[in-house]
Amino acid sequence: MKSKDKALYLAILFFTAIVWMITAISGGGAGEFFLEITADGKSIKSVELSGIEPGASITLHEGGGMNELLISGNAVRMISSDCPGGDCLKMAPLVSERGAIVCLPHRLVIKLRRKDEDRNSGGIDAISY
Amino acid sequence: MRSRTEKTAILALFSALALAAGMIESWFPLPFPGVRLGLANVFPLLALIIFGAGEAVAVAAVRLCMSFLLAGNPFALACSIGGLLCSLPLSILLYKKFGTDLSVTAISAASATAFNAGQIAVVAALTSEPAILAYAPVILSVGAVTGISVGYLADKIRNRLSLEKRALPTKETPASK
Asked: What would you measure as the largest C-alpha separation in chain B, in angstroms?
């Protein structure tokens, strides 16, 4: 430990805490969701989650590859993908409008959105780095 | 003054080790995307504390290009560039300005945090999806811890190598050997 170490560690902690707070205050809470799938920034599919029976899967052919989503109850996860990294398979299942499953090689973004999205309640509106 | 040849050899070794460390690490799948120990980052950091800023950038750049050529993942490349653009200037600045008052471990922790912030910003920009930033707190927290481990390791290696203190063989044979 050198003299300014503590200050730097505190700065890191502070930065992380702020990012944590920003993400914590936006979003959260239960409700009726619909599943929104975007490819290359354009919405390609939007399904009501309650209309899908648990255990059903959705197969997508976007960005020159294949991805398969599994819907189980109110959680959505990616179960197979032929992308090189397979990072999307490791992403946490979606349960609320916080977070997203992203498959960068296929330019796919899978999100849950609240039904009453007009109030602009979901997601992060603005964040600056 | 260290000989050019020795410096070139050491920097080449660092680059090769960084590349190898990165590849070995990728064999172990981790439960969370974007979370890695980042062992490869030990070597640019070593280059910074043993040689200087330019050498650190060189080791990082060689490793980046080589791992892209070997793995061929343009998205990983974009993420790494975004991360390095944040972490390298920060760690160089911290080391140059406050190097006497800061331990290598602390510099590495800050550098890892900056790297992760840059990386997640690139992912959010590439997908134009700010919701991905919900991952930021986890990645930043884990990143600070791995950054500390990496810094600790770099510090230990530096002491073992003691490249800084070691006097160079003065009776070097002329270049026309």
From this structure: 62
